[in-house]
Write a structure and sequence with these properties.
Length: 111
């Protein structure tokens, strides 16, 4: 999974990609990508930001504090995001193509 960070004008600030062997559940992978996005904005010293994803289930679980198969990751995201000024939003895969493309490239590069 991958995270791409841009400023409000669309300028590239940074990116990060993770390849996690053995995890195939899309929602779990997306939750891991959200956690990675929070780590990325901390590394870049960004305080106000939006995390966009095309996985409505994870967005819903974060807002509800759900404790499903990836509940520990949701808890970590929730507790981590309280110290930051962030918004979680839905974005279609077509719009969120940079992170999707980076994730695919990262996966192929280890094969």
């Amino acid at each position: 999974r991958a995270a791409v960070c841009r400023d409000e004008e669309g300028n590239f600030l940074g990116s990060s990609a993770l390849v996690i062997e053995g995890v195939i559940d899309p929602a779990t992978l997306d939750a891991i990508a959200w956690r990675e996005a929070l780590a990325l904005v901390e590394d870049l010293h960004i305080q106000h930001f939006v995390v966009a994803s095309y996985c409505l289930q994870v967005i819903s679980d974060i807002h509800k504090g759900a404790r499903g198969a990836y509940g520990a990751i949701v808890s970590e995201i929730s507790s981590h995001s309280t110290s930051l000024n962030c918004t979680f939003s839905f974005e279609s895969r077509a719009v969120n193509y940079e992170a999707h493309s980076l994730a695919k490239f990262s996966w192929r590069s280890i094969r």
